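Q: My labmate handed me this sequence with no annotations at all. I'd like to see what the chain might look like in three dimensions before we decide whether it's worth expressing. Could you predict it?
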Amino acid sequence: MTEQQAEAAPVSGKLPVKTKLAWGVGGFGENIANAAILSLVFPIFNVALGFSTLAIGLAMAVSRIADAIIDPIIGNLTDNTRSRWGRRRPWMFVGSILMTLFFSAVWFLPSLVPQLPKLVTVHVQSETVVQSPASTTALKDSLSWYVVSNKDIRLGPDATSGSFSVALRQAPETEMAFSIEHVANGGIPPGLSVSPAQLSFSPENWQAAQTVTVTAPDRLATGATEVTTSLRILPAADMLDSPLLHRIGITSWSALWMFVAFALLCLLFYFSFSVFVIPYSGLGIELTDDYAERTNLQIYRLVASFCASLLVGYLYLWSQMAGAWLGGDEVLGVRVVGIGIGLLVLISTMLPALLCRERFADIEKKKHHLSLFKAIKLTAENRSFRMLMGSVFSVFMGLFFALPFMTYIGIYHVCQGDKMLAAEIGGVMTIVQVTGQFLAMPLISWASERVDKKTILFTGLSISIVGYASSWWLFTPANPWLQIIPVVVAAWGLCACWAVNGSFAADICDEDELNTGHRREGVYSAVFALVYKTAIGIVALGSGALLAWAGVVGQETMLGEEILFKVRIAYLAIPVGFLSLAVLSMWFYPLTRERVEEIQSQLRPPQDQS
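A: Here is what I predict for the chain of 610 residues:
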């Protein structure tokens, strides 16, 4: 360590404010890059482009889980890196640049992949209600490119089927295929079939009407019910004949290329995200050995993250505004937003890489290296860490499962299909939410000096459970702005978890050093990231599958009541269940304030104890 580094390196105990600021600002780039992906991917790729929710979830899940496997390798490498700049900072520098590039690239993907099939909804209304289960009524309407008519099929209480004819109002340039999907609204039971599943039109036969029949499996329970039939338009040559891919919503070659490209870009982004975040988190764990100061240090990271959250809440609205300004839609506008956010990510993540110093960069040279498998084995044997990871996994599962459901509840239930209103409320919600989190930080800092971290954690989790549970009554189209209350209460409680999780990890690393003789913040950060990414991968796949199961297709102007009921139940039940599991996981956590202070007294050299 050079003389300059020795003077700048943090010492144990209380940290200078400039050191906490330099490290904490990295939380801005970390948070906004990750949160922007999660908040925009469904509104852009599904709602705007019609890309299958299941395909989105699968692509994100594959990329996160594959990347998570690499995390322990990165963590062990950072623990054993030797350079004039320390163990962590070279990795942070490279990760900052790569993360910025791949984040921005994700939003240019729709312009590089062939046009996805477009959803066109055909509404037809019966002139006479069908009363006989065996009868069908021919209902005529015509379909113009990207034009939706104003009629609906109505089936009577004894009806099992109805039909309508489709003809184009203008000749296509090439042969076109219509892959027919049916969206059930109102009281129609699931399992409706549409025959034929595909229609084909050529420049020669485009005027010939083709009949589509909708069949219900059982008689309808009550009265006349509306049925909406949706057709995805794509060139016949682009049709993909694969039942397996069709099950995840990939019906064309263009959708398949979108899936592959999206999964690859997600993998590259999350890999570069790890290259920055794992050494960044490891650096934060090792900066101080003071029990309360460790929580205070994490608060600096949280404050920077909350500043990022202020912007994240407006990204969807800004995408729509930028798209309108450029003469397009949110798919075009998100490219401008992506570049702007990418620059903020670069600046904020570069600062800790350039300005921070490391306590153990020189001390670790005296110790032999641990192999990757030995390091992972020792980490897995730490009981305190296993309990913490069980809690962290449960919190992430509850939080991130809720995010995509919130998007659809906000747009289609609370705002009745008004995307601009949903975006405006989302922006105001973010301001109120982050303001509340800022106000909570002094309270958490005050509590960290006086009570055990576990008490802070349990209090925060209980508040969040109340917030999610109240959504059933406060998410209401009668007063759309009331949806702010449950979201803010849940987020306010969760900020206590974010403040103490990193502090818990620092205490565990002290316990680990006492037991093994090694400082392994990098591996612990990597396993933390592995748990986090595994949760995200499961959530991405699970939420996409649940949305598809509920009946969400993409590009809808409105969702049916049955679909929204399922989505609302999932938003309430899943977070409440997982947050309750987080409480149970940490119930017998052994590292109290007294135990941590005892461990640290045993770790101090004899001259420091006098």
